[in-house]
Amino acid sequence: MGNARRARLPARLSFGSVSDIPLILPTESAVILASALDRERKIDRVLEALGPIARRDAVLVGAGPHETARWTAAGARVTTVESLPDAVARALPDGSADTIVAAWSAFRGVEPSELAGADRILRPGGRLLVVHDYGRDDVSRLRGDLPEYGSWSRRDGPFLSNGFRVRVVHCFWTFDTIEEARGFLADAFGADGAALGGVLKRPRLSYNVAIYHRTRGGSMAEVETDAAEGEAESEADPVQAEIDPV
Predict the structure, then answer these.
(1) Based on the structure, what is the number of domains in the chain?
(2) What's residue 194's pLDDT?
(3) N or C: which terminus of the chain has fewer CB atoms within 10 Å of its end residue's CB?
(4) What are the pLDDT digits (tens) for 15-67?
(5) What ranges in the chain are assigned the alpha helix state H?
(6) Integer Cα distance of 218 and 203 in angstroms
(7) What is the domain-level CATH number for residue 214?
(8) Domain contains 179
């Protein structure tokens, strides 16, 4: 791929309706990232711990095909909608879902109509789970100044001021070889990606994800685990991240 094309690629990144990966990329790069993103499946394990989702009635917002397939295989009775205010979501019966999951594409901030739609669809005790980037990692060096990296995780931000708590999941973009990682970064992110690839010591990038979670009506669950399956997180205390994220 020529340097001129690489230089144009960052302008193509956007926040479209995607949930299999956190950003829109050209097809070849998107396939590579989908394979590299969170190979340990930490995100899904924490979502399940906060939901649960498996063997429940679940609404997936802006879901990609891989996300839909994973939760269907886990026994979830899945309904997909593009957004909570859309016609499909409005047609869902009141109190028809145990869990709503929105990964990256929805709840870009918190709109009252989205919360009202979620509370209408959820059963009593139902859970709303929203996945976004958190930052403080290698990946954030590639993506510029995003609200995900600052205001969204503050106490006075759109999530924590609307009855959400936040769980930070420390995961990775993991590639098969360091050469593959460097090639992907240069193709997907141009000069900034090439610069980061040049200093990599191993074929992975640290990637922190925030899972904002809320019980129907904004009440808190009585007991919540600190990490899926008792897994300890090495880069930060997830209990502290829930209590005082900054």
Answers:
(1) 1
(2) 98
(3) C
(4) 334 579 999 999 999 999 999 999 999 999 999 999 999 999 999 999 999 99
(5) 3-8, 27-36, 42-50, 65-73, 87-91, 112-121, 140-143, 178-198, 238-243
(6) 40
(7) 3.40.50
(8) yes
